Task: inverse folding
């Protein structure tokens, strides 16, 4: 089939999403993606009072809103289910209650319409988004930064992933969220910290740069969070300028650490069999929307004569278009997962990698 249309479903955390994506196969073997619809309902209001995602509340919200969101996605695409070639849904990693809602809904629709159901790894969705939005295909180095994941992955081909580095404690997005909660800035934390940092002095507080200079390209952010908390406690009660400066110093320290860690991953790849294939750094996940980090990464890739590729801001956070596209790419590559694949709270892209501590276990989505 040179063209197929997939309905994607995403319910792994606190966004309920449905999207219709069409994959066009070109005569030269490359592919082009077309987003026919992309509906996302956030649950920020439901979780704001708790400063983070509450799994039971998230699952209930998915169950209540998924059906109308699927209908809206089909209406926006001007299609009916009879014109859909397959149903794809995130089946991991993520919060198990939400995953089950999306998976069982997708399976039910596929069974009634007698079309394939495709279970999709949420991380593969992030990893392959640039193929949909930028037409960029593997191989490339992926920096995946989100609320539940901070990993460096060599994407050799569709379905072929090698983990180069990961966090040994907190994920980058989690560090932003916890810092925002500590400073009373609200949820989600990443955009709040970034906003407050704009009017701050990034040099006022000498915060640590975790693992700076270490040869292995892993990440650590728990010590940085502790250092920020200690600085905040010294100043209590905090003024607005204190908060601005704390956010700017925190964001700067994170960026310095990330740039150093990505640099070590580049060194690793240059000393590997993939050195001649290393031309591009792809950044994906919710934290890829942070403009300060984007600017620092641009400097790194310019220095190393690499191309930097990022999805549009609207597709950095969780969405169903990336799930539908990942399913389409895997179908085209001949990767066929059984419909009986279970929902999994943990599902690393590189299932051969040795688990690390904390979020570095390679599959948790907080």
Result:
């Amino acid at each position: 089939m040179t063209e197929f249309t997939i309905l994607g479903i995403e319910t792994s955390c606190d966004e309920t999403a449905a999207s219709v994506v069409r994959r066009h196969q070109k005569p030269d073997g490359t592919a082009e993606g077309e987003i026919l619809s992309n509906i996302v309902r956030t649950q920020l209001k439901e979780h704001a009072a708790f400063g983070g995602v509450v799994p039971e509340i998230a699952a209930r919200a998915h169950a209540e809103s998924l059906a109308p969101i699927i209908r809206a996605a089909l209406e926006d695409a001007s299609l009916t289910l009879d014109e859909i070639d397959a149903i794809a849904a995130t089946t991991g990693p993520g919060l198990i209650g939400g995953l089950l809602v999306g998976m069982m809904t997708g399976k039910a629709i596929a069974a009634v319409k007698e079309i394939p159901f495709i279970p999709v790894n949420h991380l593969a969705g992030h990893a392959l988004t640039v193929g949909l939005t930028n037409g960029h295909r593997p191989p490339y180095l992926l920096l995946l930064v989100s609320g539940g994941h901070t990993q460096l992955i060599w994407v050799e081909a569709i379905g072929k992933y090698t983990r180069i580095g990961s966090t040994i404690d907190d994920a980058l997005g989690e560090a932003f969220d916890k810092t925002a909660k500590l400073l009373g800035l609200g949820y989600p934390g990443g955009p709040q910290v970034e906003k407050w940092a704009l009017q701050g002095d990034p040099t006022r507080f000498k915060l640590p740069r975790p693992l700076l200079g270490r040869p292995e390209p892993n990440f650590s952010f728990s010590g940085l969070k502790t250092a920020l908390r200690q600085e905040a406690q010294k100043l209590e009660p905090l003024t607005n300028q204190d908060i601005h400066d704390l956010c700017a110093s925190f964001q700067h320290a994170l960026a310095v650490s990330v740039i150093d860690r990505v640099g070590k991953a580049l060194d690793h790849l240059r000393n590997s069999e993939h050195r001649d294939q290393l031309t591009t750094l792809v950044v994906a996940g919710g934290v890829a929307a942070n403009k300060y980090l984007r600017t620092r990464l641009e400097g790194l890739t310019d220095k190393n004569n690499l191309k930097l590729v990022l999805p549009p801001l609207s597709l950095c956070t969780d969405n169903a278009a990336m799930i539908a596209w990942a399913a389409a790419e895997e179908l085209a590559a001949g990767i066929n997962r059984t419909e009986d694949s279970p929902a999994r709270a943990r599902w690393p892209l590189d299932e051969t990698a040795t688990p690390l501590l904390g979020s570095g276990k390679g599959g948790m989505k907080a």
Q: What stands out?
A: Confidence is low (pLDDT under 50) at residues 359-366. The CA atoms of residues 206 and 279 lie 34 Å apart. Strands lie at 3-10, 15-25, 31-42, 86-92, 117-121, 140-145, 150-157, 160-166, 280-284, 307-309. The two ends are 37 Å apart (CA to CA).
